[in-house]
Specification:
Elements lengths: L10 H8 L3 H13 L3 E5 L2 E6 L16 E7 L2 H11 L5 E8 L17 E7 L9 H19 L4 E3 L3 E4 L2 E13 L2 E11 L13 H5 L5 H18 L2 H10 L7 E6 L3 E10 L5 E5 L2 E5 L3 E3 L2
Parallel strand pairs: 3-4
Antiparallel strand pairs: 1-2, 4-5, 5-9, 6-7, 7-8, 8-9, 10-11, 10-14, 11-12, 12-13
Helix pairs in contact: 1-2, 4-6, 4-7
Length: 297
């Protein structure tokens, strides 16, 4: 009601049209203010002054199911793990307006200020354990396509789990899973995207900076999920790997890579193995790295 009204609405009018008490109206207004809505109260009534880009389930055209939205969390990955262990449906979502302890790969953190998009998908994979990496590279490839289709932003996959533009890092994807034998019970994909948030780091950029305008995060989340779900339902592990390779910035480049297994590697990245490892060639020798950090050569 407040969003569709050009003038303030009195508590009496709202209570009459909704069929609730004025006390109930007041309590709900206070709840909305606590959730971050810019509602002003005056003698004329209530007015919505802030059209912020909120991510609550009722803000979407069709209210989302299996969707857990928070104003603030330490980490969506931590909350998603609790939900996964209790049991939930495929593609349950945990999203937060900001994270106090956003997680990056390894011991790194992820700057998670308001305005970004920070969420975890809880996925019930149909693929066996050997193909768990497909979900990470698939998510990055799907996000690359999404931001290109929606905003004309040419951000590309960087091995192993980042989305980057020449101006800096745009997004990162983490995975965590629980297995029973060779079967994955659940796999959580934690995704952080720099959207409209302010950044202090010179090696990061946002979709707002790259596109030149503010981004509707609801549209981004919906389109990304549709793209990713479509990919998982229609494509094979091999074709998903090919999609990543078509949208990457790593293959063909000279790299300097620090791998936990192989130590420091230098050479040219020439492709991915069937298990998602990066193949680095130096002269006639090829070495593979399952995980690692790529630095400027």
């Amino acid at each position: 009601m407040l969003r569709n009204s050009r003038e303030p609405l009195s508590g009496e009018r709202i209570s009459r049209e909704l069929g609730v008490s004025r006390v109930a109206v007041w309590k709900q207004i206070q709840n909305l203010i606590e959730l971050g809505y810019g509602i002003e109260s005056s003698s004329a009534g209530y007015a919505l002054k802030d059209e912020a880009d909120h991510l609550y389930p009722w803000e979407f055209p069709q209210e989302k199911q299996n969707y857990n939205a928070f104003k603030e969390l330490d980490s969506t990955m931590t909350e998603a793990r609790k939900i996964a262990l209790k049991g939930c449906s495929d593609f349950t979502t945990v999203v937060a307006e900001k994270q106090n302890k956003g997680r990056g790969r390894g011991t790194k953190s992820w700057d998670s200020r308001e305005g970004g998009l920070y969420f975890t998908w809880i996925i019930k994979p149909e693929l066996p354990l050997a193909y768990h990496y497909i979900y990470t590279i698939g998510a990055v490839a799907a996000l690359s396509r999404t931001v290109n289709d929606l905003y004309g932003v040419d951000a590309r996959a960087k091995w192993p789990n980042d989305l980057v533009a020449p101006e800096g890092k745009v997004a990162g994807v983490l995975s965590e899973m629980e297995c029973s034998g060779e079967k994955i019970s659940w796999l959580n994909l934690g995704i952080g995207i720099n959207v409209n948030n302010k950044l202090d780091s010179e090696d990061r950029t946002s979709l707002k900076e790259l596109s030149g305008h503010s981004i509707d995060r609801k549209e981004l989340l919906n389109s990304f999920e549709e793209q990713f779900r479509r990919m998982l339902s229609r494509e094979t592990p091999g074709s998903i790997r090919a999609m990543w390779e078509n949208r990457n910035s790593t293959i063909g480049q000279a790299v300097r890579l620090r791998s936990e297994q192989e130590g420091l590697l230098t050479g040219r990245a020439v492709g991915l193995t069937k298990s998602g490892s990066l193949i680095v060639r130096k002269g006639k020798i090829e070495t593979t790295a399952l995980f690692g950090d790529i630095y400027e050569k």
